[in-house]
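Researcher: Quick test of sequence recovery. C-alpha cells follow.
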C-alpha cells in the first residue's frame, strides 16, 4: 500500500491500521509478525519516570535508568526466551489486551512520519493476577517498500513505580 503523506486522512488511517495489526500480534504473542512491522535499525525505549515538583521536571534522559532500551535484535532475544522453557513467569501464559487510542499523525521528513498515541495494556495471569499499563507512545514511522514500519518508539508510562510483577510485555 502506497502512503500519501500529503493526505492527512489517508495517513491517519494507514497508521491506525498499522497499530491495530500490531496490537493483535502482541495480544496473540505472534512476535514474528510483530517483528515484521519493525525496521532493522529499530530503537525501542521506555525510560523510567520520576515524580518531581513542576519546577524541577526534566525530559527523560537516555543515559539514566530505563525499563527498555532495545534494538530489533534484543527484542528478538527476549521473545525467543519464551520458547526455552525457562520463562517461568510466563508459564502458564499471560493474557494481554492492547488498546491504542488518541492517534495523531504528523509528516516528518522524506519517507518518515511522526505519530503520537495513548495506550492501555491489560494483563491477566493465573486466577487473580491483573495489571494495567497506561501511557503514551511517540513513534517515528518509516515507509519501506510502500509499507509503514516502526523505526523508533519512545514509551512514557504514567506510573513512576511499576506496579506489575514483571515487564514481560511490549507496548
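Model:
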Amino acid at each position: 500500500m502506497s502512503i500519501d503523506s500529503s493526505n492527512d486522512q489517508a495517513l491517519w488511517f494507514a497508521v491506525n491500521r498499522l497499530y491495530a495489526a500490531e496490537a493483535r500480534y502482541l495480544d496473540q504473542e505472534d512476535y514474528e509478525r510483530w517483528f515484521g512491522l519493525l525496521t532493522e535499525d529499530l530503537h525501542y525505549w521506555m525510560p523510567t519516570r520520576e515524580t518531581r515538583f513542576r519546577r524541577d521536571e526534566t525530559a527523560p534522559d537516555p543515559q539514566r535508568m530505563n525499563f527498555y532500551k532495545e534494538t530489533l535484535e534484543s527484542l528478538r532475544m527476549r521473545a525467543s526466551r519464551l520458547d526455552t522453557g525457562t520463562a517461568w513467569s510466563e508459564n502458564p501464559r499471560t493474557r494481554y489486551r492492547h488498546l491504542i487510542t488518541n492517534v495523531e499523525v504528523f509528516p516528518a521528513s522524506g519517507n518518515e512520519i511522526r505519530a503520537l498515541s495513548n495506550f492501555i495494556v491489560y494483563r491477566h495471569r493465573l486466577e487473580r493476577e491483573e495489571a494495567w499499563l497506561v501511557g503514551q507512545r511517540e513513534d517515528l514511522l518509516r515507509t519501506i517498500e510502500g509499507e509503514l514500519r516502526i523505526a523508533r518508539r519512545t514509551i512514557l508510562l504514567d506510573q513512576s513505580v511499576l506496579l506489575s510483577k514483571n515487564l514481560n510485555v511490549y507496548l
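The chain has a mean pLDDT of 88.
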